[in-house]
Amino acid sequence: MDIFGSEGCMSVDTTTSLPLQIYTGKEASIPDLLRTPRFWIADEVDHFLKCILHNQEHMCTAEEGKKVLEIALGARESAEKHEKVVFD
């Protein structure tokens, strides 16, 4: 899936060893956090469970999670309708 914005785009493909690539202007980058031999979701689940077990704050807030969900649903809507979706 490719997501385009006014300052560049990002390419998401969880079936490859480089699941996220970011393109801005003439530069392309791969976030360091994704350069891991383990599948990224394993690290996410591990962190989440540690937060529950040790009563710690998660690195992402519920508000951030809500915004990510809105973006994902908007991307799906855009793909289904073949139209641009505008977010607040």
From TrEMBL:
Q: Which domain of life is it from?
A: Archaea
Q: What is this protein called?
A: Gfo/Idh/MocA-like oxidoreductase C-terminal domain-containing protein
